[in-house]
Design brief:
This protein is an alpha/beta fold and about 290 residues long. Helices cover about 45% and strands about 15% of the residues. Strands 1-2-3-4-5 form a 5-stranded mixed sheet, with helices on both faces. A hairpin with a 7-residue loop joins β2 (about 45-50) and β3 (about 60-65). α1 (about 5-15) packs antiparallel against α7 (about 175-190) and α7 crosses α8.
Length: about 290
C-alpha cells in the first residue's frame, strides 16, 4: 500500500492537516502551501514540504516525512536533507520544523542516540497515528490518516462510518474530495479488489464516485455498460441472455438509474422487476 502518496494527496487537498497534528501550529497555518522542493548539488528532492506564504519572509518551513516501514537510516536522511535545504534557502527562512508520521512507535528506527538532542527538543515532531485516539472522535481529515493504519477486518466499517459522517456534512466544499480519498485508501488497502468492488463494499453509488464521473465525462457509454453488467453479476448472479440484452439496450439515462438502483438488489427477481417497470419506449437504445 503506497501510503506516502495517499498522505501527500491528503496534504494537497488540505494543507492545514499537518498542523492539526501539532501541539504548537503556526498562527498563519491556513496560508501555508504544500509542495515538493529540490536541491541541485547534491541532487535530491524532498516531497513533503510546507512553505510559508511569501509575505511571511523570513518564515518557518516545515518538512514532513511519512514512514510506514522501518528504516534504520531515516533520521540521517531526513535531517541531512532538511538542514541542507534550509542552509541553501537561509535568506527566506528563519526556522525549520520536522514532522515524522509513523503508524506506531514500533516502526521507528532503533538507533536514535546520535539525534537525542533533536528528538527531545521542540523542533522535531514525531506523530504516532495509533495514539491519536478513537478514529470516530477525530477531525475527518485526521481520521482519514488513521484509516490507512487499520487492518482489513476493521477498516470497512470505519470507512463506511466516515462516509456517513461526511454525508451529514455534505454542504462542506470538501465533501466530494473526502469520498474520493476514502475510496482511494480502501482501494490501496484491498488491492485484490477492483475499484468498483470496493465502492460496492462501501455502499457508494456509481453516481457519487470518480469512476462514474470519468465514464460519463469521457462519453465511454460502452465502458459504463460493461461496469454495470459486471456489478449486476456480482450482486444477483449470472444474468440470463434476455436480461443481459435488455440491460445492453438501455439508453444512457436509464443506465444511470440502474447504476443507482442495483445497489439495493439482492436477487435476479429485483432486476427483472426493475426492468419490467421501465416504460417500453424507454428500453429502446438511443
Amino acid at each position: 500500500m503506497r501510503r506516502d502518496s495517499i498522505f501527500y494527496q491528503l496534504f494537497q487537498q488540505s494543507p492545514t492537516l499537518l498542523f492539526e497534528l501539532l501541539t504548537n501550529p503556526p498562527v498563519n497555518a491556513s496560508e501555508y502551501r504544500f509542495d515538493s522542493v529540490a536541491v541541485k548539488e547534491p541532487k535530491f528532492e524532498i516531497d513533503g514540504v510546507f512553505l510559508p506564504p511569501e509575505s511571511d519572509n523570513p518564515g518557518v518551513v516545515y518538512f514532513c516525512e511519512v514512514q510506514f516501514q522501518r528504516d534504520e537510516r531515516l533520521y540521517e536522511r531526513v535531517f541531512a536533507e532538511s538542514y541542507l535545504y534550509f542552509y541553501r534557502n537561509r535568506v527566506r527562512f528563519n526556522d525549520l520544523q520536522v514532522v515524522i508520521i509513523y503508524p506506531s512507535r514500533n516502526i521507528e528506527q532503533a538507533e536514535i542516540h546520535p539525534y537525542r538532542s533533536l528528538l527531545n527538543a521542540d523542533q522535531v515532531n514525531r506523530i504516532y497515528l495509533d495514539e491519536l485516539g478513537d478514529i470516530r472522535q477525530l477531525p475527518v481529515w485526521v481520521a482519514l490518516m488513521v484509516l490507512t493504519t487499520l487492518d482489513e477486518g476493521e477498516a470497512p466499517e470505519e470507512a463506511r462510518y466516515l462516509l456517513t459522517r461526511n454525508q451529514q456534512e455534505e454542504s462542506h466544499p470538501s465533501s466530494r474530495i473526502i469520498i474520493e480519498m476514502v475510496t482511494t485508501i480502501m482501494v490501496y488497502k484491498f488491492d485484490q479488489l477492483s475499484r468498483i468492488e470496493v465502492e460496492e463494499m462501501l455502499g457508494i453509488t456509481l453516481r457519487e464516485t470518480r469512476v462514474y464521473r470519468e465514464i460519463k465525462e469521457e462519453g465511454r457509454e460502452e465502458g459504463e455498460r460493461s461496469l454495470i453488467l459486471r456489478l449486476l453479476t456480482r450482486r444477483v448472479g449470472e444474468l440470463s441472455p434476455q436480461a443481459r440484452s435488455q440491460v445492453e439496450s438501455l439508453p444512457c439515462e436509464q443506465l444511470e438509474n440502474l447504476g443507482e438502483a442495483l445497489l439495493d438488489f439482492t436477487c435476479v427477481a429485483d432486476l427483472d422487476a426493475w426492468l419490467e417497470a421501465i416504460p417500453f419506449q424507454s428500453r429502446e437504445r438511443e
